[in-house]
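WARN retry 2 of 3 for item q-0093 after timeout on previous attempt; input resubmitted unchanged.
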Amino acid sequence: MRGEEAQALELYNRLVSEHADLALAEYGRIGRAMMLYQVGRTSDSILALEDEEVALRGSAEVHAALAALMYTERPSLALRAEEEWNLACLFDKRYSNPDWVRSNKHWPPRMIAALQRFLSLS
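OK item q-0093 returned
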């Protein structure tokens, strides 16, 4: 599976670099951030999601992903994670359903696990 994950990350990188002017690049940047987490680059993933949070303020997906990662990987940021979660829920409550996220947003397995950990504490 590791090879497929690396390939997915490379495809997201290409999408973002070759088509930065298209709206599809937004999808690519979010996907790239999540794949960074999937391949174990946690800090890079969080930084990329924080960049997207600034660029796409109000994106429920970005807020939900940040909440899950911050709570799971950076316990000292638990309050910020809760704030991110509250923002996500203002825009789209469906992120509280991991099955919906898995099937509709296609988050990678580590991201789904982080979301489930976060939700189990709520």
